[in-house]
Write a structure and sequence with these properties.
Largest sheet: 10 strands, antiparallel
Radius of gyration: 48 Å
Number of strands: 39
Helix content: under 10%
Length: 532
């Protein structure tokens, strides 16, 4: 910038407070009673006894202390000390006068600031800062302590040496591994999840593999020391569908999936089977439909305990109404609303209309049930990503077709796949077929018709009430009284026994003369206790 006359000098010029010579070589430099530190020994003018002194040889400076080459006396006079400051200091520029064109070297533009490893302080007391004094590392401090570190490996929060992309916690627990800090992810959502955008809030773990084939997934791993001890994994086997798997390390360092929530919401514990009891494998399945299947190898599969007082252990409901219970009173367990039934079937597997309470007789022909048995294999993965083949035997109820017999191998389509299945007869030893009683005073009364088994899986099985209490169909116009014994009338109804002696043909006793229902043929049903 051109000037008229001499170019003005620049610098932070200061005259120090007067110094009185004494028998010492060292003097403290002050301006307005405040210590000052010169830029260097060469940034000073010192006059002693009217003579300007030579820097370095006649005097030196250290901090705010001026030291002469030798001790002075009270006869000496320190005329003055002038501090030049930084003679290149141009003072404080006016606002907007420094532009990028005025900058040079590494400081090219305001967006490329090179502090060359020096600490960048952000607050007034210089304890909050950002520094990069270690190669390939950025340290973030508050209150003078490291809070986060970014290295070439990852981000460490409370961890000075992150070994993964994100590490939260300390590593100073006596060699026992990572002491986890609390990590809080807070988000305000109007609903639990957003089905339209597949947004569930909070922390998102993403597998960026666009493939939808078997075993793509992501999850969390919990470690102790250097080894994994548990994990939560989500795997996908089809587009936009995924399950949630819980893995733990058990006895003998065995790592396995302990529980799975399937993409359909079924909870499987210790098994991958949705019906372990039917397929004879250990585990528990709780299906989203409300079905529960429990199977235990070599031990009790279910225990119930009622604490504090007596009462119901189990309630049985139908359409929301309690129809029966199992209760405990002191040492007695009661099966309340109890009617003991058996399965049976007509010889031709027919399904005629039978009135409730109709008397039935046994036949010398056993019921037979068959299953199709075949193996199904599934593939899971161990902790190293290796495929593990699992095989279970499936049993599907089967009704024999013409020409089929026990032991035959047939082709069966199981969930869209043809398999070779063997016809296997169940080993039942106690359920015989029945007929409507046609023998007066029959001794082989099986019991009373209850209803057809709607889950008969192809068979027209029905329930026969044999013990407990149920209704008995009495012949039309029969006079009854409480306590009367009943026998077969030979037409599917019962008649009152002529005496009170219990006989082999006595199958029930009337408990109430209340007619529950009267049928079109005049026969009626009343509550009875059964002794078939």
């Amino acid at each position: 910038m051109p000037y008229i006359g001499r170019t003005p000098l620049v610098g932070a010029y200061q005259k120090c407070d007067a110094l009185n010579a004494s028998a010492t070589a060292d003097y403290t430099l002050q301006v307005s009673s405040t210590n000052v530190v010169p830029e260097s020994v060469n940034h000073m003018i010192v006059s002693l006894n009217g003579v300007i002194q030579s820097p370095t040889t006649a005097y030196t400076v250290s901090g705010a202390t001026l030291s002469f080459a030798s001790a002075l006396t009270s006869n000496d006079t320190i005329d003055f000390v002038i501090l030049l400051g930084n003679v290149l200091d141009i003072g404080t520029p006016s606002d907007g006068t420094v532009t990028s064109a005025k900058l040079s070297g590494a400081l090219v533009t305001p967006s490329t600031l090179d502090v060359n490893g020096n600490e960048l302080f952000l607050d007034a007391d210089a304890d909050t800062s950002i520094t990069a004094d270690t190669d390939d590392e950025i340290d973030f401090k508050t209150g003078g302590s490291d809070r986060a570190i970014i290295t070439s490996t990852g981000l460490g929060i409370g961890n000075a040496a992150p070994s993964v992309t994100l590490s939260v916690g300390d590593d100073d627990d006596g060699g026992q591994g990572v002491v986890g800090k609390k990590a809080l992810i807070s988000q305000t959502l109007d609903t639990t999840y957003n089905t339209s955008s597949d947004t569930f809030g909070g922390l998102h773990l993403n597998n960026n593999n666009s493939a939808t084939d078997n075993r793509t997934g992501t999850g969390l791993t919990f470690t102790h020391g250097t080894g994994g001890v548990a994990g939560i994994s989500s795997t996908s086997t089809a587009s936009s569908r995924a399950d949630l798997r819980f893995i733990t390390r058990g006895a003998g360092d065995t790592i396995a999936e302990r529980m799975t929530i399937t993409d359909d919401g079924n909870v499987l514990v210790g098994t991958t089977d949705t019906n372990p009891s039917a397929n004879n494998v250990a585990g528990t399945a709780i299906l989203s439909s409300g079905f529960i299947s429990v199977s235990k190898s070599g031990d009790v599969g279910l225990e119930l305990c009622r604490k504090t007082n007596d009462g119901n252990l189990i309630n049985f409901r139908q359409e929301g109404t309690i129809e029966g219970t199992i209760s405990v009173s002191s040492t007695t367990v009661s099966y309340n609303g109890f009617t003991g039934t058996h399965w049976s079937r007509f010889t031709d597997n027919s399904k005629p209309t039978i009135l409730r309470g109709t008397v039935l007789e046994t036949l010398d022909e056993m019921c037979d049930w068959y299953n199709l048995e075949f193996n199904v294999t599934t593939t899971t993965q161990d902790e190293d990503g290796n495929d593990v083949i699992n095989t279970i035997t499936k049993k599907i109820p089967h009704v024999l077709a013409d020409g089929q017999s026990n032991g035959d191998v047939i082709t069966y389509n199981h969930e869209g796949t043809d398999v070779q299945a063997t016809i296997v007869k169940e080993g039942d030893i106690k359920h015989m077929k029945a007929k409507v009683s046609d023998t007066t005073d029959a001794k082989n009364v099986y019991g009373l018709f209850v209803a057809y088994d709607l889950d008969g899986e192809g068979y027209n099985d029905f329930y026969v009430a044999s013990v407990g209490s149920f209704v008995v169909r009495i012949k039309a116009d029969e006079t009854i009284a409480k306590g009367d014994l009943l026998q077969s009338n030979g037409d599917g109804t019962a008649k009152v026994q002529s005496d009170d002696n219990v006989k082999s043909s006595s199958f029930a006793k009337i408990l109430s003369t209340t007619k529950i229902e009267t049928y079109d043929d005049g026969s009626f049903i009343v509550p009875c206790s059964l002794r078939c």
